[in-house]
Amino acid sequence: MPNDLSASAPLHRTTEPRVLVRVSDMGKQYRQNSPMVFENVSFDIHQGDFVCLIGHSGCGKSSILNILAGLEQPTTGGVIIDGREVTRPGLDRGVVFQGHALLPWMTALQNVAFAVRAREPAASRHAVREKAEHYLAMVGLAKAMHKKPFELSGGMRQRVGIARAFSTQPRLLLMDEPFGALDALTRGLIQEELLRICTETRQTVFMITHDVDEAILLADRVLLMSNGPSAKLAEDVANPLPRSRTRERMHHESGFYEFRNHLVDFLVRRSALVQSDPNL
Ligand SMILES: Nc1ncnc2c1ncn2[C@@H]1O[C@H](COP(=O)(O)OP(=O)(O)OP(=O)(O)O)[C@@H](O)[C@H]1O
Ligand SMILES: [Mg+2]
């Protein structure tokens, strides 16, 4: 990959928020002679942005997130976070995986405390435990924190993963369909809590979702990927609704239905047409 990825445009601008993440001309091929999963993917994420990525199954969304996490290497192009090229995982990034990825021999509390300890090695035992408990309570697991993953439901495990990622207060939070396994009520509560925290702390988030309404509630920008193989980043759409939106009220905001229809129409129609005509 070129060494001067950051040279194409300044990473620090005076008139706009700072660019935290720059993805440049990224492509991924898992095996030689197999088709590219995706290619020519470029986008920036500004400090404090909440960006959602939507696209059909198999277009390469998790692969992109894993590259941002430093768990996979891109075949072409690359990622710069905070001025540094991503080559491996780091504590500056918190990841919530599509599956929960908890340590099976540890309780929920120990799983979260382990992450807090890694991030803050000098913190007291008491401070680590308090922080872990706080984030577990936030996802509604105050009563289940001493259970091990095999004793928890799928949705509860996923919530431990969410608490773990939040508890490290990462510069960049990466989430791969984090709410897919949750019931509608819990999902709604956590979505609103997430929006509140992200707005208050200006947390930068990159999140994959299949749920258009979830993207409208949470995202400042929605990235739309065309179908694979050779998937492309087809559109980068700003959310026209005010950030004060809530799940109950957002459909009353002006522009809601137009925005929603635009996203749904992409998934139903345009995502399959992009490869034949990029202007559709
Ligand atoms: N480690 C791997 N080795 C080989 N092929 C892989 C690997 N990971 C993903 N792929 C392939 O890359 C393509 C994209 O996979 P990816 O998991 O990134 O898609 P996705 O958009 O996240 O799909 P979903 O919405 O179903 O989660 C698929 O064809 C998949 O089989
Ligand atoms: Mg995926």
From TrEMBL:
Record has Cell membrane as a keyword: yes
CDD domains tied to this protein: ABC_NrtD_SsuB_transporters (cd03293)
Broad class of the protein's primary localization: membrane
GO molecular function: ATP binding; ATP hydrolysis activity; nitrate transmembrane transporter activity
SMART domains: AAA
Topological relation to the membrane, as annotated: Peripheral membrane protein
Annotated keywords: ATP-binding, Cell membrane, Membrane, Nucleotide-binding, Transport
PROSITE patterns, alphabetized: ABC_TRANSPORTER_1, ABC_TRANSPORTER_2
Cell location: Cell membrane
Gene Ontology cellular component terms for the protein in this record: plasma membrane
Limits of the ABC transporter domain: 21-252
Family: Belongs to the ABC transporter superfamily.
NCBIfam families, per database record: ntrCD
Protein name: ABC transporter ATP-binding protein
Source organism (scientific name): Gluconacetobacter sacchari
Phylogenetic lineage: Bacteria, Pseudomonadati, Pseudomonadota, Alphaproteobacteria, Acetobacterales
